[in-house]
Design a protein that fits this description.
Elements (H helix, E strand, L loop, with lengths): L60 H6 L8 H22 L18 H10 L6 H40 L8 H8 L7 H6 L11 E3 L9 H4 L4 H11 L5 E3 L7 H11 L7 E6 L5 H18 L4 E8 L9 H17 L6 E6 L5 H4 L4 E5 L12 H13 L9 E6 L6 E3 L10 E3 L1 H18 L3 E3 L47
Parallel strand pairs: 1-2, 1-10, 2-3, 3-4, 4-5, 5-6, 6-7, 7-10
Antiparallel strand pairs: 8-9
Length: 505
């Protein structure tokens, strides 16, 4: 389910197929399969959603290709408005006066919109008309030019005012900085950095989770090529994660995310304490799969295996019906063979819905990892812990009875967004997304699981605003699974159990 987490409002990022371009489905999509909504439906995120050291993300390179072109203005008004908009944009850029603190790209017309060509073709069709019509054309063009000039003036004024406001609000803070600017401003953050010391002393965080699911922001290819992830941001995230768990689960290898987490662990002095489950994303795209696997081998060749608890090859690939058990099993066998040849002997796993595990599938992995979400089953928050335990014991534990080799790879609860009845059409209580309900589940699960030694990963530490695009009316919870918001602040009302001071290994 972890498509993306730290501060992780990942833009509408999609995996890229060199042969077919951008697919409709995000590679990190967890909920039940459904048609992806248009990129134009993604609610823009305000500057307040972005923590220190990170800029409000620029529009994804996808969005230009997915923009709706059906909302054209009628007749000459459209031409005037378009011209005014273009001039307004230019005026805004001039008004900014070269302010370098902003990371926004200028708004430009879509690539297939050629105002000059459109106007020329329209005028050429009028040559057969009379003098009166020609005068009408001149008047319309004049009106368009007037609109452009007015737009330019207003844009210049607003651009200048916005520039001043941005300058005054950003003083003394790295907010709005790109990855490179963050590094230039703060250097390579470490446990000795003032900012990190503050993050490492949160009395409301408790290390009670055996594992935590995490994906750094801006680590979905190819968007990271245009807007790379911030090492400092990952270091900030890991500083927070280290107070929740000693084990971090990743979902993919793209965009150097694994290397950045390893670097953060090193800078924070957590080597030997914090371990990583490397994630290797697999789907129905052969190019994606080959790239992810090769990156995994490259990481091991460069960094060795000491920092890793194991490797998770594929997440819910069977659930999405992008591979068969046989196909995934072949990949798992190849991975084990290739790692053994490198003298690397760590557990090889795969994660999928608890319902998708079979004895044949379980026999192909060292560790079974089942994603079990009581919320999607329509269970009430007060019954969620009991349901999760019973489901795991009845469905998945019999497939690998040695519980050191049987993990719950995802379980959690969203803090808001609506109600679900699971597969039922109606229900008296159902699963309600809310802070109280999240606390209910944690209170009846976390300390009990810690006591009985259940291996599981909590989904998840941070909200993922980029997943707003997967929300539907009445089911707006996709981006609300974090214990903390995107600024790494514990959500108001969320209480992480202290379990009497007991901590996860």
């Amino acid at each position: 389910m972890r498509n993306t987490p730290g501060y992780d409002p990942q833009r509408e990022m999609h995996h890229y197929d060199e042969q077919h371009g951008y697919p409709q489905q995000s590679p990190y999509h967890r909920p039940e399969p459904r048609q992806d909504m248009s990129a134009s439906s993604l609610t823009p995120l305000g500057a307040a959603a972005f923590p220190p050291g990170l800029a409000t993300p620029q529009n994804s390179m996808l969005s230009l290709g997915h923009q709706s072109h059906d909302r054209a203005l009628p007749g000459a008004v459209a031409g005037g408005a378009a011209a005014g908009g273009i001039m307004g944009t230019l005026g805004g850029l001039v008004g900014k006066g070269g302010n370098k603190s902003t990371a926004y790209n200028p708004v430009v017309p879509a690539a297939d919109y050629n105002l000059g060509q459109e106007k020329s073709e329209w005028l050429s069709k009028q040559k057969t008309g009379g003098k009166k019509l020609r005068w009408l054309v001149i008047a319309i063009v004049a009106l368009a030019i007037s609109g452009a000039i007015a737009g330019g003036i207003v844009g210049g004024i607003l651009g200048s005012k916005n520039s001043k406001n941005q300058s005054s609000s950003s003083s003394g803070s790295p907010s709005g900085a790109s990855a490179a600017e963050d590094n230039k401003e703060n250097g390579d953050l470490s446990k000795d950095s003032t900012e990190i010391k503050a993050l490492l002393n949160n009395k409301n965080l408790h290390k009670v989770f055996p594992g935590i699911d995490y994906t750094p922001m801006y680590t979905q290819y190819p968007d990271c090529v245009h807007y790379p992830p911030s090492q400092n941001n990952v270091t900030r995230d890991v500083a927070v994660l280290s107070q929740l768990s000693n084990t971090i689960r990743l979902y993919g290898t793209d965009c150097n995310q694994t290397q950045m987490v390893l670097h953060a662990i090193d800078r924070l002095g957590l080597n030997g304490t914090t371990k990583v489950w490397m994630g290797v994303w697999q789907d129905g795209n052969a190019t994606t799969n080959a790239r992810q696997l090769q990156q995994m081998y490259d990481i091991f060749d460069s960094h060795g295996s000491a920092s890793f608890a194991g490797v998770i090859v594929g997440n819910e690939v069977l659930f999405r019906k992008e591979m068969s058990i046989t196909q995934l099993g072949t990949i798992l066998t190849q991975v084990k063979t290739n790692l053994t040849a490198r003298n690397i002997h760590i557990p090889i796993a795969s994660s999928d819905l608890g319902d998708n595990w079979t004895k044949g599938f379980a026999d192909q992995v060292d560790i079974l990892m089942a994603n079990i979400h009581p919320f999607f089953a329509g269970e009430s928050s007060t019954d969620a812990a009991a349901w999760t335990w019973q489901f795991w014991q009845n469905k998945d534990v019999p497939l690998k009875t040695d519980l050191t080799k049987n993990y719950i790879a995802e379980t959690g609860w969203p803090s808001q967004g609506g109600k679900t009845c699971g597969e039922a059409t109606t229900c008296a209580v159902g699963s309600v997304a809310g802070i109280t309900e999240m606390n209910n589940f944690m209170n009846s699960w976390v300390c009990q699981a810690l006591t009985n030694g259940t291996n599981y990963f909590w989904f998840e530490a941070f909200d993922e605003p980029w997943k707003i695009k997967f929300n539907t009316p009445g089911k707006e919870w996709e981006d609300q699974w974090g214990l903390m918001d995107v600024n790494r602040s514990l959500k108001p009302g969320v209480v992480i159990p202290s379990c009497g001071g007991k901590t996860a290994p």
